[in-house]
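Dear colleague,

Thank you for sharing your sequence with our group. We've completed the structure prediction you requested, and as agreed, I am returning the results in plain text so they can be pasted directly into your records. Please verify that the sequence below matches your submission; if there's any discrepancy, let me know and we will rerun it promptly.
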Amino acid sequence: MSDDAVNPEAVRHVAELARVDLDDEEVEAFTGQFADILEYFETLDEVPEVEREAALTNVMRPDEERDSLDREKALRNAPETEDGYFKGPNVS
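Please find the predicted structure tokens below.
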């Protein structure tokens, strides 16, 4: 992994996207933690694949039909709404 794969600017960018305010100490701490996490993923890439037939079983409960939230309750805590819908940030 290159040393500049995770830098403070990248951490600040991710924090901004997640709408999380970080001070300089937190940015430094997360920079190291993110680098460690990426190293773990690189290690996982080295694990050989095992070919076998997987027995698929449903371990979840059966679906149950329930009343959904009304629109007003669903949008109550949304930071922004427009015309009765959630409004998210513009992405490019």
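Summary note from our side: Helices lie at 8-17, 24-45, 71-75.

Kind regards,
the structure core
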